[in-house]
Amino acid sequence: MIHEIDEMVNHGSGEQKAMLQALARKAMEERNLLADFSEEAMAELKTLEAHPSVPAAALKDLRSLPWCSIDNDDSLDLDQLTAAQASPDGKTKLFVAIADVDALVKKGSAIDAHARQNTTSVYTPAQIFHMLPEALSTGLTSLNFAEDRPSIVVEMAVDVEGAVESSDVYPALVRNKAKLAYHAVGDWLEGEGPAPEALNGVPGLEENLRLQDAAAQKLKLFRHEHGALDLQTVEAKPVFLGNVLSDLRTEKKNRARDLIEDFMIAANGVTARFLESAKFPSLRRVVRSPERWERIVNVASQLGHKLPDRPDSKALSLFLQKRRAADPLRFPDLSLTIVKLMGAGEYVAETPGMEAPGHFGLAVKDYAHSTAPNRRFPDLITQRLLKAALGNRAVPYAMEELQALATHCTQKEDDAAKVERQTSKSAAALLLESKIGERYDAIVTGASPKGTWVRLLHPAVEGKLVHGFDGLDVGHSIRVELIHTDAEKGFIDFKRTNG
Fold first, then answer.
1. Strands 491-497 and 462-467
2. Within 10 Å of residue 396's Cβ, how many Cβ atoms?
3. 343: buried, middle or exposed (CB in 10 Å: 19+, 13-18, 0-12)?
4. Alpha-carbon distance 250 to 233, whole Å?
5. Taking the CB of residue 394, how many other CB atoms lie within 10 A of it?
6. How far apart are CA 292 and CA 412, in angstroms?
7. Strand-strand pairing, 451-456 and 439-448
8. 449-457: which pairs have CB atoms within 8 A and are 24 or more residues apart?
9. Looking only at Cα atoms, what is the longest distance across the chain?
10. What is the mean pLDDT of residues 215-221?
11. Contact 387, 58 (CB under 8 A)
């Protein structure tokens, strides 16, 4: 593998995509993540493709609703659809349909074994390593346009204040009426672009999306009033022209992304509470109180805001709202600082009646990942628990197994994130290798005995500060000079400078 990568480096930019793919496979292997499906899994896939399951007649038929998917422009693994209905009393009924992946991917199968090992799809710059075979995740188990699909529907009644007043969960047959993308829908909702063409062919969908948007904003406002954090981090996505890496495009939040995020947060809360009411165990997603609250207090103090000595999500939320209004240009950098200081999330197995830590960033106690079963194994676990509860069947996972899976999913999610970061750095190193000696504004994103890390404001690239790091901590703004890149190792090195 190393020899092959060296050959690609020597061949130059024409081999950049192949080089990044080879580096990604190497990084997957090093983290004990499976880059390929087993022969058993592929044989199983052929059987599923030849004899796909037909939705049961007993499913509730909701195909008449104006369902649509909103995702990234290039996403093909569609996990959820959304729709809404207005009520005369001002309330809004929301529907989130989640792909019934368990209908084809059975517990204990060879495909399930692959998904259980990796626990997530891994998104690297030049290749996606899908958790499920693409014929499933982008085909038979994807909520594709104009296809009838079995799903698990989360139905929620949202009042005028944005609270989920009542909810239900049930299996249903759905049909995607329009495949939409974040950019186009976001620009349209924000008055910066025309309505997406896909809306024209679906009567009432334009009004339905505006209804969904209004409900999402109420949900968001309600959560923020209860301490949810309004964070805006920057994500850089590689852009290829053929096999050549040409740019790192910054992905920004917009109203369409917010809509889906708010609906999914609400649906995940309903899922957790449904399992609790059924006296079923659940796999919760938790973010404990910030690991470095004292440093968060210090960061706020430097910006003229006083936070309490003990972790307080409402106080932190208010601080973030004020900073977004005061300095929107630098708010993503502050958001990144807070994310780094809060620490990582984790999965926890919860028995009925047990008090889980909750999710500090979302200001919710009940939260179970359930809305992306094509790309996250915890969501598939939750789906199986839900279907067993709905069907009055035995719990499919013993508590001991669920606890082991919680630990495993947390670890593999971390491994996948490291692969994604490492390969993203390799892509960034390729992009910057001709810019040695250039200077940039940067923000410190990590400071520990292992090293000090900075992110450039533009392009949004992270690297190591190898000189001039004394006295720096997360959140400090500095000026740096690029001094070295190594695409194979993913190294981007800077030194601190005054000019």
1. parallel
2. 17
3. middle
4. 10
5. 6
6. 24
7. antiparallel
8. 454/478, 454/480, 454/494, 455/333, 455/336, 456/480, 457/333
9. 70
10. 92
11. no
- As a whole number of angstroms, the distance between CA 42 and CA 55 comes to 23
Kindly report the pTM of this predicted structure.
0.85
Amino acid at 223: R
Cα 486 to Cα 427: distance, rounded to the nearest angstrom: 10
The residue to which tokens 């082991």 are assigned: 404
- The 10s digit of each residue's pLDDT in 151-182 is 999 999 999 998 899 999 999 999 999 999 99
pLDDT at position 166: 92
Nearest-10 Cα torsion for 42, 45, 46, 49? -160
CB atoms inside a 10 Å sphere around CB 56: 10
Asked if omega into 357 is within 30° of 0 (cis), the reply is no
Q: Which two tokens stand for residue 3?
A: 């020899």
Beta bridge partners of 96: 82, 154
CA distance 280 to 273: 10
Residue 224 near residue 230 (C-beta atoms within 8 A): yes
What is the fold of 435-497? OB fold (Dihydrolipoamide Acetyltransferase, E2P) (2.40.50)
Residue ranges per structural domain of the chain: 2-288+348-428, 293-344, 435-497
Residue at 42: amino acid letter: M
Helix (H) or strand (E) holding 338: helix 331-342
Q: What band does 346 get if pLDDT is binned at 50, 70 and 90?
A: confident
Query: Mind listing the pLDDT tens digit for each residue in 68-125?
Result: 999 988 888 999 999 999 988 889 999 999 999 999 999 999 999 999 999 999 999 8
DSSP 410: H
pLDDT averaged over the chain?
87
Identify the residue whose tokens are 């609250």. 293
Q: List beta partners, residue 198.
A: none
